[in-house]
Amino acid sequence: MLKRIGVLISGGGTNLQALIDAEKNGIIKSGKIVCVCSNSAKAYGLTRAENAGIPTRIIRKNADCGGDIDEFSRKICEYMKEMQVDIIVLAGFLAIFGGDLLREYADRIVNIHPSLIPSFCGEGMYGLKVHEAALGYGVKVTGATAHLVNEVVDGGRILLQKAVCVEEGDTPEILQKRVMEQAEWIILPKAVEMLCQCSE
Ligand code: GAR
């Protein structure tokens, strides 16, 4: 039986697109994306989901949950259960959640982070900030990590990592694009397939 995959996004959704494409071309063969949930109404990833015929829901921490993180987590959890989701993918989901969702989906949530964990990760390290920090430190190699999600931000078990070279003259934007193309869009679908195959 195909595992039912729910994807959480916040923005452009290029990682979501990589998952949609991976399902089409058979890299993800043990699961099927059944819904996409965004914490922002403006996320372009919502359009990508609609174009692929995937149901979407917007759940915002402030506008829909009065800024309450537990309520936010509960609402997302409810939606995932309503859609009978087995596995959750954080594909550029830039909000923190806790409680219900972590308990209900323990060891069944995978995140993609744009660095080689344990470098440049943890609370406040997301999106372009990660690449700014990597360039600021002067590392010559960075990359991406697909990992399980637990109560420690970016602290869950690592599933896959891929290294990417930093090049002379890189800006955070240029580096972000290279890390996405050479690492994130490749390892996230593979990690999702791994999780679909091994979760009960
Ligand atoms: C991606 O680079 C992803 O790794 C990062 O946000 C970007 C979202 O892009 N996630 C984090 O930093 C999580 N800590 P996308 O919306 O185009 O997939």
Describe this structure in words.
With 200 residues, this protein is of the alpha/beta class. The protein has a single domain, classed as 3-Layer(aba) Sandwich (Rossmann fold), CATH 3.40.50.170. The protein has 7 helices and 7 strands; from the N terminus they run E-H-E-H-E-H-H-E-H-E-H-E-E-H. It has helices at residues 14-24, 45-51, 61-65, 69-82, 99-104, 128-137, 172-198, and strands at 3-9, 31-38, 56-58, 87-90, 109-113, 141-148, 158-165. It has a 7-stranded mixed β-sheet, with helices on both faces. Strand 1 (3-9), helix 1 and strand 2 form a beta-alpha-beta unit. Helix 1 (14-24) crosses helix 7 (172-198) and helix 6 (128-137) packs across helix 7. The chain is globular, with a radius of gyration of 16 Å. The chain starts with a strand and ends with a helix. The relative contact order is 0.17. The model has no long low-confidence stretch (mean pLDDT 96). Glycinamide ribonucleotide is lined by residues 9, 11-15, 45, 91-92, 94, 112-114, 126-127, 130, 180, 184.
